[in-house]
Design goal:
By secondary structure, the protein is mainly beta. Helix content is 6%, strand content 36%. It has a domain of 71 residues. The strands form 2 sheets. A 6-stranded antiparallel β-sheet has the order 1-4-5-6-3-2, with helices on one face. A two-stranded antiparallel sheet has the order 7-8. The longest helix is centred in the N-terminal third of the chain and has 7 residues.
């Protein structure tokens, strides 16, 4: 058996379509195919992305490997956290806040409780 075919069999495989610029995105990383062929020959073609156990990536077009390079790595987005998971205390109003004096003043004169 051919070594390339054996590596492809023992890996995770995903199908992606190439863009006009011969790019595809896999795990927040944009890859671009480098080839001597004219770009229009590969635009919109389906490629197979193979990732082995070590995390190495191979791109196959009809079982033949394609050369590629990392074009741009996107920054990791912040995870959405619910308010229940945050360890924050509710803010207390200041001592002179009108909420604390509600009902104790009448016409700007203090009423004794």
């Amino acid at each position: 058996m051919d070594r390339v075919r054996l590596d492809a069999i023992l890996s995770k495989q995903f199908q992606w379509k190439l863009s006009k610029d011969l790019q595809f995105q896999y795990q927040r990383i944009i890859y671009q195919i480098t080839t001597d062929r004219p770009a229009y020959a590969l635009q919109g073609r389906a490629v197979t992305v193979c990732e082995n156990v070590l995390g190495e990536i191979k791109v196959l077009l009809n079982s033949s490997p394609l050369a590629f390079q990392v074009f741009y790595q996107q920054p990791k987005q912040a995870a959405v956290v619910s308010s229940k998971d945050l360890n924050r205390k509710p803010a207390k109003p200041a001592a002179d806040h009108p909420w604390r004096n509600y009902g104790f003043t009448l016409d700007n004169q203090t009423i004794q409780p």
